[in-house]
Amino acid sequence: MGKTAPNILFIMYDQLRFDYLSCAGHKTLETPNFDRVAARGVRFDRAYCQSPVCGSSRMSTYTGRYVSSHGAAYNNFPLKVGEITMGDHLRKAGMDCWLIGKTHMKADSEGMARLGLAPDSVIGARVGECGFDIWLRDDGLWAEGPKGFYDQRRSPYNAYLREKGYTDHNPWHDHANAGIDGDGDIASGFLMKHAGKPANIREGDSETPWLTDRAIDFMEAKRGRDPWCAHLSYIKPHWPYIVPAPYHDMYGIEDIQPVVRSDKERTDAHPVFDAYLHGKLSAAFSRNDVRDVVIPAYMGLIKQCDDHLGRILDYLDETGQAEKTVIVLTSDHGDYMGDHWMGEKDFFHDPSVRVPLIIADPRSEADATRGTVSSKLIEQIDLAATFVDMAGGKVADHILEGRSLVPLLRGEESEWRDFAISEYDYSTSPMADRLGLAPRDCRLFMVVTERWKLIHAEGGFSPMLFDLEVDPQEFTDLGTSADHAEIIAQMYDHLHHWAKRQSQRTTISDEEIRARRQGGPEQVGILMGYYGDEGLPEEFTAAYQGKATPVEEN
Amino acid sequence: MGKTAPNILFIMYDQLRFDYLSCAGHKTLETPNFDRVAARGVRFDRAYCQSPVCGSSRMSTYTGRYVSSHGAAYNNFPLKVGEITMGDHLRKAGMDCWLIGKTHMKADSEGMARLGLAPDSVIGARVGECGFDIWLRDDGLWAEGPKGFYDQRRSPYNAYLREKGYTDHNPWHDHANAGIDGDGDIASGFLMKHAGKPANIREGDSETPWLTDRAIDFMEAKRGRDPWCAHLSYIKPHWPYIVPAPYHDMYGIEDIQPVVRSDKERTDAHPVFDAYLHGKLSAAFSRNDVRDVVIPAYMGLIKQCDDHLGRILDYLDETGQAEKTVIVLTSDHGDYMGDHWMGEKDFFHDPSVRVPLIIADPRSEADATRGTVSSKLIEQIDLAATFVDMAGGKVADHILEGRSLVPLLRGEESEWRDFAISEYDYSTSPMADRLGLAPRDCRLFMVVTERWKLIHAEGGFSPMLFDLEVDPQEFTDLGTSADHAEIIAQMYDHLHHWAKRQSQRTTISDEEIRARRQGGPEQVGILMGYYGDEGLPEEFTAAYQGKATPVEEN
Fold first, then answer.
1. Of the candidates B422, B448, B507, which has an alpha carbon nearest to the alpha carbon of residue B66?
2. Which of B147, B166, B508 to mutate to test the interface with A (most CBs of A within 10 A)?
3. Nearest to B543 by CA among A171, A158, A206
4. What angle do CA B61, B66, B68 make, to 5 degrees?
5. CA-CA distance, A509 to A147, in Å (whole number)?
6. Phi-psi region of A40 (alpha: psi -120 to 50; beta: other; left: phi over 0)
7. Three-state SS for B357?
8. DSSP classification of residue A185
9. Extended beta strands in B401-504, E state
10. Chain B: nearest CA to A283, how far in angstroms?
11. Which domains does chain A have, with CATH numbers?
């Protein structure tokens, strides 16, 4: 199976907007290395994450299943034991699946204990690490507050920095994610006013180059041991928004693209969106002074990512591995950057829910599509099915809910999905309290078609609706427009068809079900609907024939 | 916790119709022992199974979750590893949970292997046995055909019979489920023409008394080791329809209740129902000669169940255990017995989908409801929540989808559900081939309210609709009635609300979610939306303060 399979270098950035790449149309940010991969492959221009927030988005990508199907609906909601991952599917197809970087995986330790899975066993470690074998796990969130560290693990990156001579308590924060202010004090990147300062670290020691080096180490170690799948998963350009020199001042206010927002978005806003508009992030990112300092830093972080992607591409080219290595570039979600009066992600406007997705398959079968752009509706869960397909495995479509993109990469026209889905659970957020909602009413669903985007909110609200053709900027919410009742009904039909999907029948394949239609029960003696033996093939009754022993004789 | 909890004797019959009990209105079948329990407790008159077929119904009852939630949608579809069972919940509440009899559980051996769970370990055995500790497992289906036995396990019942001197190859079939014909040959109970013959076995050796004895053994062994939950799970009155003397001729044609069927059901029948009407079971059970011989045998089997229930009640009374033992009587589904031109179960008319449910709680808190009938809409998944509640545990309502019936048993009025759901997967059936449907389109959903019952079929069909008030016999399908468009829309609203439920977020409770709303991220150093430190409590920044070490010095 795996013999002729390519390697898969599955690179994920964190919080990288779909349109902050020059190949995706950014006017002032040059990303020649992303563009280089796009020129070699297909850029999918309408790819959506399954949830616009790290944890749940990633759990979908790593299981190939919708958020409602795996249940890890928000950051640090554990992925329940028993869920089958990309790694499980790939190993079955004969390909190892390694992690280098971030997953945001929270292990279901209660479930593991219930099943007696030791976290330090091979199986337990994979279950606890979302199915990956760990080359390096580093989620890149070594924040610390009065209740201790956000991430309780040992920090490989902090260990590295200490080895390099950064002796502060938490060099991840104090150096990689902070500058120095005029008084010589730590200027935390968590305060956005510091975004324009250079991070107090040698560029080569910052997170992106560090992880890139680890990825090259990995590929060196694996030379001659093809094929492999490696998930190289960066924390950047995720906040804290601060970047080392020379990237800190590579962009200025003049490089910022026009903000996408309209006063009418705040008038009569949908109650859930309105709750977001009253939040702290909205207040901050609606300020031009915030955008003016943050966006150039964010662009610098992306530029740094691009430069180090170049190192990887060069390494693959120079070592002859490029021709047998599929490269996948994507992000777990976007970043509003003040568009729609919003900061971060967490809602369904394009800057948040659309993701960059570029796949370059070096094999000749994909020659027809090199350098093309596909506008098919892609869901990020398609990646798991794609990788299994590339590994030469059979896509277990009773488990994996996405579809292999291999036919699209080969330019083989085929019918494709009519709509894509994304979900969001804001039950732990301040918005939930503001709206006074019970946890399970704090759920949003997005349905997007070629032209329309509907956002459904549980809890008794009307929906939001955008006409992406007439209103690509998503300013005009048509969710209560009587003229659009029919469209809204159609969009709900999609949602409800999807909601009734069979997502949990994961232990038996469609193929096996069809096989069982062939008179299975009679073959094992279950005879139903027979009065006499008319119509009953003799072989079926053989086991039941013979002389009876009258009970008195027993 | 478990200290003052009662024992729970959870008795399930198999294929016992809700209305074949004298307390439920049967005119000719006296079931004084069922009635005795009903007089001590509450009879729920509108209880529904979650799927009208053994395996999926039971997996719902044993997990407390809908079929769509656990995924074991039909007989012998394995219950996926990781699903949490009644037994898991009860043990957490300090109560053991034992099995005596049938579960129809198919273990997810692939999933167990993936997680390294040895079937003979304590944990592996529980996972493989649907969370029960096994006093005795016997599914009562020791059928054998050209491809061997339906059930590959060792048969405890056959072992018992051999010990008792029944030496035939498969005494379960040749004696317990067969008579003798005029030539002295085995007259298999699988051929319904033999239903009137006495089974060729001493009554005391037949399945119902045998399992009753094992239950009494269990209760004897556990005396002084309260509390326990025991699932006493009979195969009867399930087919083969044949019963030993004296039950074989206790009822005659004159005792058969009028058949509930109408010619108009076969005119313009819904396509899926029509496929059933063209099946072998429909052909057989539409014949009066079949009903005339099968129904008296079925009544005899129930009468035998009632007599042996009497032995259990006597035992509990005589040993003083009655006052500390809750008794629960139910069935996994019903039996059409020719009503609606149907045999067996597998569809959603009342004879198939409604189940008997009687709960007698001896504790004084339940005095107010003794001998009453409740017409609340009950789903069988309510039992798991009920038992956890009785055991003194906290009902994990992020996992368990049913509701505790304890408040109803205590006569505490409370708001209750407006609709109940049942599901059916016919993907392995001949009907699937007849309709030419892909496996995942072969799914039916029933939504029932106080007055209406809607049946939705995937695959592009219109629904079926019955007005239970005007048409309690369910003869008139209003699924395409323009006059009922509004009702149909309301019923679909229920279905779709249910379909969007959060069924897989099982690793974090609503309580924990509410707790996380209280500024969790900031407490661990995640500061979002701050430009400067305005509004930021000082403690949050403490970890990020201090003199910076310029990078050159590192």
1. B422
2. B508
3. A171
4. 135
5. 47
6. alpha
7. strand
8. B
9. 420-425, 443-448, 452-457, 464-467
10. 8
11. 7-413 (3.40.720.10), 510-544 (no CATH)
Tens-digit pLDDT string for chain A (554 aa): 334 899 999 999 999 999 999 999 999 999 999 999 999 999 999 999 999 999 999 999 999 999 999 999 999 999 999 999 999 999 999 999 999 999 999 999 999 999 999 999 999 999 999 999 999 999 999 999 988 999 999 999 999 999 999 999 999 999 999 999 999 999 999 999 999 999 999 999 999 999 999 999 999 999 999 999 999 999 999 999 999 999 999 999 999 999 999 999 999 999 999 999 999 999 999 999 999 999 999 999 999 999 999 999 999 999 999 999 999 999 999 999 999 999 999 999 999 999 999 999 999 999 999 999 999 999 999 999 999 999 999 999 999 999 999 999 999 977 999 999 999 999 999 999 999 999 999 999 999 999 999 999 999 999 999 999 999 999 999 999 999 999 999 999 999 999 999 999 999 999 999 999 887 788 899 999 999 988 887 776 667 888 999 987 76
Distances (CA, A) of A440 to A73, A432, B43, B405, B509: 11, 10, 32, 22, 10
3-state secondary structure of B464: strand
Measured CA distances, A332 to A344, A357, B167, B224, B396 (Å):
12, 10, 66, 57, 31
Count CB atoms within 10 A of the CB of residue B25: 11
At residue B103, what are phi and psi to the nearest 5 degrees? -130, -25
DSSP state of B204: G
Most distant CA atoms of chain A, gap in Å: 105
Nearest residue of chain A to residue B496 (CA atoms): A496
Closest residue in B to A397 (Cα) is B440
CB A218 within 8 A of CB A246: no
- Torsion angle of C-alpha atoms A519, A525, A526, A527, degrees rounded to 10: 80
- B114 and A108 within 8 Å at the Cβ level: the answer is no
Non-local (6+) Cβ contacts of B44 within 8 A are B357, B358, B359, B373, B374, B376, B378, B405
Q: How far apart are CA A511 and CA B304, in angstroms?
A: 42
Look up the ipTM and state it.
Answer: 0.95
Cα separation, A382 vs B27, whole angstroms: 59
Contacts of B144 in chain A (CB under 8 A): 524-525, 543-544
* Rounded CA separation B265/B476 (Å): 7
**Residue in B16, B7, B206, B216 with CA at minimum distance from that of residue B100:** B216
Residue with tokens 């554990």: A78
Mark yes or no for CB contact A145/B526 under 8 Å: yes
Closest Cα in chain A, distance from residue B196 (Å): 12
Q: HSE on the CB side for B434, CA within 13 Å?
A: 14
Contact B116 A111 (CB under 8 A): no
Kindly report the nearest CA distance between residue B49 and chain A, in angstroms.
19
Residues of chain A in contact with residue B109, where contact means CB-CB under 8 angstroms, are none
Find the distance separating the first CA and the last CA of chain B, reported in whole Å. 58
Closest Cβ–Cβ partner in B150, B520, B546 for A186: B546
Total number of residues shown for chain A: 554
Closest CB to B439: pick one of A150, A514, A529: A514
Tell me the chain A residues in contact with residue B514 when contact means C-beta distances shorter than 8 Å.
439
Helix (H) or strand (E) holding B449: none
Instruction: For residues A237 and A220, give the distance between their C-alpha atoms in angstroms, rounded to a whole number.
Output: 26
User: Tokens in use for B128?
Assistant: 């493989």
pTM, entire model = 0.97
Contact B60, B50 (CB under 8 A): yes
The whole-angstrom separation of Cα B417 and Cα B489 is 18
Contact B550 A290 (CB under 8 A): no
**Residue A175 identity (one-letter amino acid):** H
